[in-house]
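# step 3/5: fold
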Amino acid sequence: MNTLTPDTTLYLQAQDSLLARLLTYTEVPGREGVPVPYQLRTDDGITTLVLLSFFILAYVLSKGKYFLAQQAKEFFSTRERPSFFDEETNVDFRYRILLVLNTCLIAGLLLFEQFAPHAPGRLWGLAVYVGVCLSYYVLKFATYSFTNWVFFNKSKQKPWQHAYSLIFGVEGILLFPVLLLLVYFDLPVDKKLIFAGLVIILGKILLFCKCASIFFGKKQRAFYLIVYFCALEIVPCFVLGRTIITISSLHNKILGL
């Protein structure tokens, strides 16, 4: 029986034609696309930190309602000496630390958005700004503690430490909506500065009043109050501002901007 062998000539001709076409193909460049500008809302690292801040606030506000109520009551109390029942527990200390860290994180994000160049993959600069805010709090807390230890008795030191930490933590709570509007709704810079400035000024006013009620109850000591508060509260703010400007300048030089 004769078997018919298939003719592969047509198949080989088709392959040769396709190969020749690929070898002679010339790619014509098209129009270049418009690059999408960097936005904070599209940065996974920024989104992760915003979510972290949200979870910290949700945890403290849900689990620490009694702690916040007690701290507010103590802050606006006119008692000269703290009550025996006002002693801080380990849980209260945890809430206080979380609020402080959250404020440093939010402040670092706001400063990073304001001063650092907008580009992905540069979150190490954000870590620097968060570290500056944390160092600012720790150094001020240590300075206050040392000064109060030298000039005032122990019964007045702890209420002031609690008041300072409370105001610092509440500032972070009030600045969190500003951060959300800035990252996800493109809040204008002028409005951001106004809102942040109002929060900071309100905090300074409350601290000034608390400082007066704890350390300087008599009217004739108003001069010492102003000197004390300006030396330990206002001057560090100017030092912080100068430090941030210097860091921003170095940051830009490192990146070649």
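# step 4/5: annotate
The mean pLDDT is 78.
# step 5/5: archive (pending)
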